[in-house]
C-alpha cells in the first residue's frame, strides 16, 4: 500500500516515515503531475476543429439538435473562414462525460 492509498483508507492515522521515503513520494508526485501537464499541453496543441456535419455524425444528432445546442450555449462553435467549427475536445468531453465542459 502506498502513502496515497493509506491516506484515503485511514485519513486520521499518524505515521512515521523516513526522509528518503518522503523524498521518493515527492519525486513520484512531481513526475505524475509533470506527465499530466505534458499530456494536457500536447492535447491542446493538437486541437482539431470539426464541421457541423462531422459533429452530427459523431454524436448521432440531427441538424436541429446541433442548432438548438448552439443557441443554448451547450456546444459553442468557433468561426473559421466564415464557417462554424467545433472543438474536438468539446466533442470528446460530451462523449465521455455526457455534457460540455
Describe this structure as you would to a colleague.
This protein is mainly α and 101 residues long. The chain has two domains: 18-47; 49-97. It has helices at 3-9, 19-45, 52-59, 63-72, 88-97; strands at residues 49-50, 78-80, 83-87. The protein has a three-stranded antiparallel β-sheet with strand order 1-3-2. The chain is elongated, with a radius of gyration of 22 Å. The two termini are 34 Å apart. The mean pLDDT is 89.
Number-wise, the strands total 3
Question: pLDDT under 50 segments (min length 5)?
Answer: none
Class computed from helices, strands and strand pairing: mainly alpha
The helix content, as a percent range, equals 55-70%
Give, in order, the helices and strands.
Answer: HHEHHEEH
Number of helices: 5
Strand content: 5-15%
Strand order of the largest sheet: 1-3-2
Q: Give average pLDDT, whole number.
A: 89
The biggest beta sheet reads: 3 strands, antiparallel
The backbone outline, from C-alpha atoms, is: elongated
Distance between the termini: 34 Å
What is the gyration radius calculated from CA atoms?
22 Å
Tell me the number of structural domains.
2
Amino acid at each position: 500500500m502506498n502513502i496515497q492509498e493509506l491516506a484515503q483508507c485511514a485519513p486520521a492515522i499518524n505515521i512515521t516515515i523516513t526522509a528518503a521515503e518522503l523524498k521518493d513520494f515527492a519525486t513520484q508526485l512531481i513526475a505524475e503531475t509533470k506527465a499530466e501537464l505534458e499530456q494536457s499541453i500536447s492535447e491542446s496543441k493538437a486541437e482539431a476543429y470539426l464541421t457541423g456535419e462531422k459533429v452530427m455524425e459523431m454524436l448521432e444528432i440531427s441538424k436541429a439538435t446541433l442548432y438548438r445546442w448552439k443557441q443554448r450555449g451547450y456546444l459553442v462553435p468557433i468561426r473559421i473562414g466564415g464557417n462554424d467549427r467545433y472543438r474536438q475536445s468539446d466533442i470528446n468531453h460530451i462523449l465521455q462525460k455526457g455534457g460540455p465542459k
